[in-house]
Amino acid sequence: MLVIGEPAAAAALGLDLVYLPIEVQDLAAFVGRLAHPRSREIDWPLSGFGVTIPHKEAIVPLLDRLDKVARAVGAVNTVVIRDGELHGFNTDVAGAIEPLEKVTTLSGAVCAVVGSGGAARAVAYGLAQRGARVTIYSRNREKAMRLAADFVDVGVQSAELSALASSGASIMINTTPVGMTGAGAGQSVVPREALSGVKIAYDLVYNPLETRFLAEAREAGCKTISGIEMLAAQAAHQFLLWTGQTAPRELMLEQAIKRVASLESRI
Questions:
Q1: C-alpha distances in angstroms, 195 versus 140, 180, 204, 218?
Q2: If you count DSSP H runs as helices and E runs as strands, how many of each does the chain have, helices first?
Q3: Phi, psi (degrees; rounded to nearest 5) at 153
Q4: What residue spans define the domains of the chain?
Q5: What's residue 214's pLDDT?
Q6: Does the annotation mark 223 as catalytic?
Q7: Do the domains spanning 6-90+230-265 and 93-225 agree at the CATH topology level?
Q8: pLDDT tens-digit profile of 113-170?
Q9: Confidence of residue 182 (pLDDT cuts 50, 70, 90)
Q10: pTM of the model
Q11: Which of 5, 26, 113, 226 makes a 20 to 30 Å CA pair with 172?
Q12: How far is it, in rounded angstroms, from Cα 193 to Cα 127?
């Protein structure tokens, strides 16, 4: 888990709060014994918490309420405690779409979403809600078809990953972890030939700041967007839900970039 800007944002607004990273193995025990006001075993002023992989889908049945987006996507990344209940939200959708909306119009845009996991669900839903034409490309054809079927009412389709080069997409988004620092570093699930004709290449991976996919896209003349922008954007939405105050977004993005850059320098 990467704590990217909440402490700095809180300090800038004069808020007295603490943001703690907690590794959770038994999710039900965490919710029951530490988080839920009706059953937790310690008395502490917990206002809410963020949820990271692999718990975003598993936590859904443990919550009292879901907002519309979380229910549609089937995943929660933000929990707010209100009136003794756990309310689940999904800020990944808004966080993923906002960096794109800064540079282009999504209505009618042909978008290729690479991957079929939880991040792909959030991106596909967000794009389709804004009128984009979305196709899911994945090695796991069955999983991609199931994802597309869940959003068939908003026109999401699926195709083999091998068909990516002929997608005709103007926007290409990698939602897989391929290229992330670690075992998949320096790799790309998107072949160079698939970048022909693509105007915007967007990688949800944020560490490193420029993945192989983005580097090759830049060389091909594409506008590139790093996943660090999504990370900061979704965190700003979380901050608003937890505190009721608008986060200093530029500060949060600056802190996120500095944090990831410092991690890269240690490698």
A1: 21, 20, 17, 10
A2: 9, 10
A3: -70, -20
A4: 6-90+230-265, 93-225
A5: 98
A6: no
A7: yes
A8: 999 988 999 999 999 999 999 999 999 999 999 999 999 999 999 999 999 999 999 9
A9: confident
A10: 0.90
A11: 5
A12: 24
Backbone angles phi, psi at 82, to 5 degrees: -135, 130
- Give the list of residues 6+ apart from residue 139 with CB closer than 8 angstroms, or none: 161, 189
- What DSSP element (H or E) covers 20? none
Q: Which of 33, 170, 71, 178 lies closest to 117 in space, CA to CA?
A: 178
Average pLDDT on 193-208 reads 96
CA distance 10 to 20: 13
Cis, peptide link before residue 177, omega less than 30° from 0:
no
Catalytic hit among 56, 68, 143, 199: 56
Q: Is 76 exposed, middle or buried (0-12, 13-18, 19+ CB in 10 A)?
A: buried
Which residues make Cβ contacts (< 8 Å) with residue 220, sequence separation at least 6?
192, 195, 196, 198
Rounded to the nearest 5 degrees, what angle is found at the Cα of 122, between the Cα atoms of 212 and 115?
Answer: 40
CATH architecture of 93-225: 3-Layer(aba) Sandwich (3.40)
pLDDT value at position 267?
A: 56
CB atoms within 10 A of CB 26: 9
CATH 3.30.70.1320 assigned to 6-90+230-265: no
